[in-house]
Write a structure and sequence with these properties.
With 164 residues, the chain is an alpha/beta fold. It has a single domain, classed as Rossmann fold, CATH 3.40.50. 28% of the residues lie in helices and 34% in strands. The strands form two sheets. The chain has a six-stranded mixed beta sheet with strand order 4-3-2-5-6-7.
Length: 164
Amino acid sequence: MAEREELTWELFGSAGRELAQQVADSGYEPDVILSIARGGLFVAGALGYALDVKNLHVMNVEFYTGVGERLELPVMLPPVPNAVDLTGAKVLVADDVADTGATLKLVRDFCADHVADVRCAVVYEKPWSEVKCEYVWRRTDRWINFAWSKQPPVIRREGQVLDA
């Protein structure tokens, strides 16, 4: 198996602070941090605290189904944020990785028609990502073992997508 990136909880703590510092240094002051669940929840939380932004929203998008396995296109899962809540806001989209970039593109495009400004912050960006994020902690072409998803679930549950 090819060598992988390893993001431990301790290293993630540093990554979150450094990513927030990039945002702060750029002068961008988001009104809202829009997290892409599930991996982006951790990133959004770290950025929210570091940038003193309390207005965090969540967008659920399914794309990856396993290591190297994904759906043909990413799909927004309910509940989808109300675009009215984002109207005129400066939005920072947070995710753990920009791999193909398809998920980030879906979310960024969803926001683009409604918000004043949308920018993306990720811990990792792959060189082939179709979205080039404004804020990136590290770039890699390797698969990433994230602290929060390295181990299998304690219990495996099927059919968790709830109909709206």
